[in-house]
Please model this.
Amino acid sequence: MALKSLADAFHDELRDVLSAEKQLLKALPKMSKAATAPQLIRAFEKHLKETKAQVERVEKAFGDTGKAAKAKKCEAMEGLITEASSMMEEDASPEVMDALLIACAQKVEHYEIATYGTLCTWAEILGYSQALKLLKANIAEEEATDEALTALARTINAEADEPEE
Model:
């Protein structure tokens, strides 16, 4: 696909984030299963529900482009998920594993926040008001998830810092 305009770049990035969110739908249940702290499990389960809604919003955002909602493989998300999968295979205490899972999840959140921030800026410039509204809802959820993970990390990281007996 030739990217000759900002509208082309927007459409291409929208395809990329659709793939990213769909990949995350498959990864979150695995992360939830690997977690042991009940509050972390709940956070992953909550974000799974949000991610399902985010996929729907991204698909609706394609309406402003006049093009079909079709994903393009997001290499960045694939890498982040591969890294998280590798971490889940580590021989770590439950507390350390939870700390690692939070770190991996926050990398994902920061990637999504950056992507949605760019898409929101471009949607505004392009006059894609419906897409802007939908994408702003997604970035707000991503930011809230990141803040929730930071709050959980304060407790979980402290627990991971305590030596095993």
